[in-house]
Amino acid sequence: MGAFFDGLNAAEPAVPRDQRLAAALGPRMLDLARERSLGAIPYFVTAEHTRFARERLGRGALLAPEVAVVVEADAETARAKARDYAAMYLAASNYVRNLKRLGFTERDLADGGSDRLIDAVIPHGPPAAIAEAVRTHFDAGADHVCLQPIGHAHPPADDYRSLAKALIA
Description:
Layout: H1 2-10, H2 27-36, E1 39-40, H3 47-57, E2 62-63, E3 66-71, H4 75-90, H5 93-101, H6 106-109, H7 115-121, E4 124-125, H8 127-139, E5 146-149, H9 157-168
Parallel strand pairs: 1-2, 3-4, 3-5
Helix pairs in contact: 3-8, 8-9
């Protein structure tokens, strides 16, 4: 990634540091994001990771985690949709390493993810519950939280509308 940023510096025209964001999860990538870009856009993370990332990045960097959510009142239905979505990430070594750093165990990672893992990484429930989960990221130091509703129509316009109402309230 250092070489990638070097390439951005050497490009014609160069890409200015304040026009770059890094998809950073681990400590070294967060350090690189702080040193060579405007900040970080972590994904498939908990609010605890947002707190860790803010501490690592410092106050001057932009921190904008993206959070997948399931707008669904029934917890089991929501978790099933979340597990379908999470399967790709639970098979990727960088996301698994990050989840382990956050204290999740092999048992949490098995069989599509434990309820504890799914509940922490993919907030679900009615819009008000999701809004509260989003606020925990802001309380942990996020400057912006990008929501990605999953499990419904594409585009999930109704989910976005209901989430907007809950977040603005």
